[in-house]
């Protein structure tokens, strides 16, 4: 079984081909037979796992396994405790209520590389960074959640999927998981919720 961790840069599509010629995974990864286990929007960055294992892919994408995905999220304005608590208990979205999330307001911005396209900057609107962990993967879920509590997302970087992190990678870089990392990932997916 092969499992790759990749730091998807901003603006890259989570697929290998694009009829419009936009940047794709093929511009970074030349490994036959691997497929993404999950996705990130074009305007999101960070950790993406790819594998040649159908069963691992299923366990990584099936919401029943409820594995944690952690994001670093830059939002407009500084959320108060009430907004953070709403994220922690679950937010009502168009497709139903979200599962409870773990959320932490960071005291300082995380150490991340600059994004090639700067975030929207408004001089009179402060921003804050959150560390947000969810256990489901609805389409654009984190962006919908922060908007629902009044703090639109400006930048979104997935920093971890279960025990696997971005550590040691830069945007556009990838490497195979070590055997012990594969075991840790499989162990984290071993039970349904």
How would you describe what is shown here?
It contains four helices and eleven strands; from the N terminus they run βββαβαββββαβββα. It is an alpha+beta fold and 193 residues long. The chain folds into two domains: 1-65 and 163-193, Alpha-Beta Plaits; 68-161, Alpha-Beta Plaits (2-Layer Sandwich). Strands 1, 2, 3, 4, 7, 8, 9, 10 and 11 form a nine-stranded mixed beta sheet that branches. Strands 5-6 form a two-stranded antiparallel sheet. Strand 2 (35-36) and strand 3 (45-51) form a beta hairpin. The longest helix has 10 residues, at 179-188. The model has no long low-confidence stretch (mean pLDDT 91).
Task: Break the fold down into its secondary structure elements and pairings.
Blueprint (H helix, E strand, L loop, with lengths): L2 E6 L26 E2 L8 E7 L2 H8 L7 E8 L4 H9 L2 E2 L2 E2 L4 E4 L21 E8 L6 H8 L4 E9 L2 E2 L8 E3 L2 H10 L5
Parallel strand pairs: 3-9
Antiparallel strand pairs: 1-3, 1-11, 2-3, 4-8, 4-9, 5-6, 7-8, 9-10
